[in-house]
Amino acid sequence: MSKKNRILTSIKRAATLGWKNFHREGGLSFVAVFVLMVVITLSASIFLIRGVAEIVIRDIEDKADVTVDFELGVPEERILEIREEIAEEFEVNSMEYISREEARTIFIQRFGDRPAVMESLEEVGNPFPASLNIRADDPYIYRQVSDFLETEYAELVYNIDFYHREEVIAGIFSVTENIRRGGIIVGVVLGIIAVLLVFNTVKMAIYGLREEIRVMRLVGSSNLFIQSSFIAQGAILGAIAGVSSFVLLFLLGFLIPTTYNITLEVNLQQYFLGMLPIVLIIQLGMGITLGVFSSLIATNKYLK
Questions:
Q1: 160-170 as b/e, with b when 16 or more CB fall inside 10 Å?
Q2: Which CATH number does 72-155 carry?
Q3: SS3 at position 91
Q4: What does pTM read for this prediction?
């Protein structure tokens, strides 16, 4: 028999023994598959909503901006010079210049259906200042820019709304950072639970088959061959849990309303169902990896 055939035969025998171990530990295997399925489903759900969450987070962070209003007499050229100076000194994402005329147009678009407001506007002319709308990834940058303008251009600046919204802006960035960290922590905790569960399942299988293991050693079976059957058992547990988790998520996907959108850019059901092929690969990979890893730990510790 060639080396390749011997390897294939060994794999087939290990898989057969792993399947028998899976059946022999029926109740424990069912519990292991169920908990693994829950772990994989929750982990896959975190992956699925991550894309939507990132869009929502970016949308929230886009609202965490700072507007600098300049005195009415400050010429446009001077404001644009200040904008260039800010861009050179600080790491900001963008700065939008809004002229007095653009500010007036925005106001009319918002309140044009109120005759009393429009009459008042006609009487006073254009009371709106030119402004810079600043966006950054770090709330500390907003404070640096605000303090810089207050120090260097106090006579040109009419108002900086950062000081009125500092706590709100800091709160937004804190919440979004906690969301990102929370997803990582939940994933790690779920992974540890899954590993411990499969570990104990394989441990019980080893104890239950200890007499058979002694006999297999007496007839010349290698330690690697005996170990491989329990690794196959862990892989089977993980594969069944992964497929079960996929079926569950697939069915849940049709319960998501098609008309409900978190933002105008994302339809939850379309996004959810469109990602399922990738999720199937991830779930199978995660289930088998957790099962094999846990089995390796258990067999290395208890097979002796």
A1: bbbeebeeebe
A2: 3.30.70
A3: coil
A4: 0.53
